[in-house]
Amino acid sequence: HSSELVYKRVLLKLSGEALMGPSEFGIHMPTCLQFAEEISGAIRQTNVELCLVIGGGNIFRGLAGAANGMDRSQADSMGMLATVMNALAMQSALEQIGTPTRVQSAIPMDTVCEPYIRRRAIRHMEKKRVVIFAAGTGNPYFTTDTGAALRAAEMNCEAMFKGTQVDGVYSADPKKHADAERYEKLGYQEVLARDLRVMDASAVSLMRDTSIPIVVFSLHKKGALLDVLRGVGTSTLIS
Ligand code: UDP
What we know:
Blueprint: E1 9-14, H1 29-46, E2 49-54, H2 62-67, H3 72-96, E3 101-105, E4 114-115, H4 118-126, E5 130-134, H5 144-154, E6 159-164, E7 185-186, H6 188-193, H7 201-210, E8 214-218, H8 224-229, E9 236-238
Parallel strand pairs: 1-2, 1-6, 2-5, 3-4, 3-5, 6-8, 7-9
Antiparallel strand pairs: 8-9
Helix pairs in contact: 1-3, 5-7
The protein binds uridine-5'-diphosphate.
C-alpha cells in the first residue's frame, strides 16, 4: 500500500484521561509509551507533521476545584498546570523511543519548556519535531479542546484528530446501547445543534469558522492513527 499523504500537518488531541490507562488517576507511563509508539510509527510511515494537545482531566479539572470551594480562575490555572505535567510525560515517552519533541506552554515556564511562540512552533514541525502544546489556551474558563482548536488554526493544520474511547460519534453511547450507530460524516452545525458533545461547542465553532475538519477516532485500536492519517481508518468526519 502507498504512503501517499492525505494530510501534511495535523493536530492530535488526547484527553488527559487517556494517559491514565488502567489507573484511576494520574499518568500511566506504559500507556504513554504505547501512544508514543503509535505516534512515532505514524510519523515514520507517512512523514506527517504532527502536533499534540493533551488535556489535564486525569490530574485536575478547574470545575472540580470550583465545586470544592476554590476560585474558578485559580482552579483553572491548576488545571492548565496539570496539562503541562501530561505534556512533559508524553515528551519523555516520545523521546525514549527517539522521536524529537518540543513542549511549548501557553503559560511561560522557561526553565521547564519553551513558551508558546507560533512561528517557532511551525519551524519545529517543519523539522519533523512533535510539538506538544501545553497549558491549553492559557486562559481560565476554556478547555483543552478549545486550546487544540486554536492551535490547529494557528498552525494551519489540515485536520484536528480527536482520539476518544470509541471509534467515532455514535447516535447513543455504544457501550450502553447495542443498536447505537456510528455516523460516517457530520456537519459542524449538526454537532452544535444536536449537542452531540464530542468536543465542546467553542472548539467546534472555531473549527467551523476556520473550515478545519475534525476526525474522531479510537485511541485504543493499534494502528488507528496511521489508518486515519491514510484516510482508511474507522472514524467520524466532522466538516
Ligand atoms: N484549562 C483552562 N484553560 C484552557 C485549557 C484548560 O483553564 O485553555 C483548565 C481547566 O480547568 C480544565 C483543565 O485545565 O478543566 C484540564 O483541561 P481539560 O478539562 O480540557 O482536560 P481533558 O478533559 O481533555 O482531560
